[in-house]
Each structure stands twice: as structure tokens, then as C-alpha cells.
Amino acid sequence: ISFMVSISGWVLVSSTLPTDYWKVSTIDGTVITTATYWANLWKTCVTDSTGVSNCKDFPSMLALDGYIQACRGLMIAAVSLGFFGSIFALFGMKCTKVGGSDKAKAKIACLAGIVFILSGLCSMTGCSLYANKITTEFFDPLYVEQKYELGAALFIGWAGASLCIIGGVIFCFSISDNNKTPRMGYAYNGATSVMSSRTKHPGAGDLKATNPSKQFDKNAYV
């Protein structure tokens, strides 16, 4: 379960990078004209009422705002950590034949959980930083430029980050469960088991061996 939850969160976090709608703003003019402005970490676009979009890529990475650069770094780090976390999780699961003993697998699973938690925290921080910038500009009465609202990509990123953190916590608790579970040892005692079974469950031959002696005792006086 923890593997599926973590992988699902990593997929959602990865899908936020190419998603268009990180922030959206709709301007309604007359009944005919409607323009939708939207932007993500890589470009800003405008879509008219006919569905035609005109996009403009950010010209220079060094000329970007600081929060966009930080969000890019955090989201890329989240995707990279999730990739390595999924590999560690494959080695740490009990159903796989790689990874060594159960104790070594438990340590690898705990490491995978820590990596997934870091991935979720990076994604959560990146999306929250971007959302904080949007809300600050939206509620600022002195901000006269185009105001935006939260886009769908932010909610997808928050959901994926939450799943990564939950899956990582479950992975970390798996090492404590393995330590509490005792290993059962079995020893083969073939001769003892056979003798004990014979003594506990006498066969028909034993009954026949005892019955003639009793009958002989009774008929001895005849």
C-alpha cells in the first residue's frame, strides 16, 4: 500500500511541471470577447474566446523573479527525489528478491520513506511559495498589474506532496514492524515425532497385544 501511495504522489508531482495552469486570470469584456490569462513555471499565455492561445516563453532564466526560480528548483528536486525513492522502495519491499536479508530490506525501505518525505516537502514548499505570491498580489490594493488566481497545477502538486509524505511515513514505520516481529525457528526431530505419535496414539496392534493377555488370565482357571 505504501508503495502505491508514494508512487501515485510522485506521478502527480511530476505532472505539475508540464501543466499549464499554475495561475489563471479571466477578463470578461463584452458578450463576445473573453480573454483568459494563464502562466506556469516556463511561460505565460493568453487565450481568446475562439480558443487560440498566444504564449511567450520566459526570455532568460537569470532575469526571472526569485520565487519562480525557487519553485523550479524545488519541483525538479521533488521529481528527482521521488525517482530515487521509488528505486529504493523496490529494493526494500519484501515481495522482491533483491536487497539482501529482511533486516537490510527494512533499512532500505526506511531510506525510501525518508526520500519520499523529502520529495513531498519540496513539492509542498514549491507550490505553497507560488500560491503565496499569487495571494499576496491579489489582496494587495496597491498592486495595479494583472491579478491571478490559484491554478489547477497547485492543487495537483499539494495532493501529490501529501501522498508522498503519507507513503514515506508508512515506509518508515515498516522498519519498526519488522523489528517487533520475531523470527520463528523450526527444528526437525523425525525420530522423536514418530515415537511420540506412537505413544500418544496406540495402534490396533497394541490393543490386540493387550487383549489376549487379559483373556488368558481369565481362562487360566477354567
UniProtKB/TrEMBL annotation:
Keyword Signal: yes
Subcellular location: Cell junction, Tight junction; Cell membrane
Membrane topology annotation: Multi-pass membrane protein
Chain ranges passing through the membrane: 74-96, 108-131, 151-175
Protein name as catalogued: Claudin
Entry's Gene Ontology cellular component terms: bicellular tight junction; plasma membrane
Protein function: Claudins function as major constituents of the tight junction complexes that regulate the permeability of epithelia.
Signal peptide annotation: 1-15
Family the UniProt entry places it in: Belongs to the claudin family.
Main location: other
Keywords tagged on the record: Cell junction, Cell membrane, Membrane, Signal, Tight junction, Transmembrane, Transmembrane helix
Record carries keyword Cell wall biogenesis/degradation: no
Pfam family, one: PMP22_Claudin
GO molecular function: structural molecule activity
Organism: Crocuta crocuta
Domain of life: Eukaryota
